[in-house]
Amino acid sequence: xxxxxxxxEMAGKTDICPGIKSFFFRPTESFEYKxxxxxxxxxxxxxxxxxxxxxxxxxxxxxxxxxxxxxxGSDYKNALDSLxxxxxxxxxxxxGSFTLDALKEEYVCFLAGGVGITPVKSILEYxxxxxxxxxxxxxYSNRTPDRIAFAxxxxxxxxxxxxxxxxxxxxxLSPEEEQSWTGERGYIDEEMIKRNFPRYSDSxxxxxxxxxxxxxxxxxxxxxxxxxxxxxxxxxxxxx
Length: 240
Ligand SMILES: Cc1cc2nc3c(=O)[nH]c(=O)nc-3n(C[C@H](O)[C@H](O)[C@H](O)COP(=O)(O)OP(=O)(O)OC[C@H]3O[C@@H](n4cnc5c(N)ncnc54)[C@H](O)[C@@H]3O)c2cc1C
Fold this sequence. Notes:
Layout: E1 4-17, E2 20-27, E3 38-45, E4 48-55, E5 65-70, H1 75-82, E6 88-95, E7 107-113, H2 117-129, E8 135-142, H3 151-160, E9 164-170, H4 175-180, E10 184-185, H5 190-196, E11 203-209, H6 211-224, E12 232-236
Helix pairs in contact: 2-3
Bound molecules: flavin-adenine dinucleotide (FAD).
């Protein structure tokens, strides 16, 4: 697929969890992409030009293009959040190779940090919509329970993909949350992977999140689990 610039119209937005929103764009012409790819989202607002890369967080089987982000208070995010329905947003893409194309292995293991869940959500939604077989595991790391974006959607996809599990881990639980949280705790490490996903040694790994998360995950996989670099696909959310 060759990258092209496609005109879209802002179609709406919705809260995903505190501080995180999804924005929806209706393409005015055909736009093809693979689950997991990203694009440059550009628009004009108050005579200023804005442009940044974001993953398309939904599946190509869905009608509009979804983009999901943390509202950080930056000029870009404030301008994006103030756009009216129908506002023109140009999308340049598709870009990137964080897709299942290269998949030859029987099992996949996603390691996602925070908003890095976006391409994984796109891939799982696509596999569920298309009734594809996907065996493996998602390890999804967040600080607190309220920051688990797409929790219900992801569980729904896993239910449809028999043979796929989701392991949530939280790193900054409050004393009250400590009492009620029944999932994993702390950073993703080799023990957590071995405990929850014994087929890790037959798996391809997909790491996605901020550069610091990705660096730590890649080091852990190669040094502590002996995973070779060619079995690791990585997407850096540069800018975090
Ligand atoms: C392939 C790819 C896919 C991506 N997909 C997503 C996605 O799906 N969702 C998503 O949310 N993001 C995604 N990103 C990241 C996205 O492009 C933005 O960089 C990110 O959202 C931060 O944008 P921002 O406007 O909030 O921060 P910015 O304002 O651009 O800030 C970026 C960094 O610079 C620091 N900074 C900003 N201003 C200053 C200053 N004056 N002094 C010092 N430090 C400063 C901030 O603290 C922050 O750490 C992706 C990036 C890439 C490359």
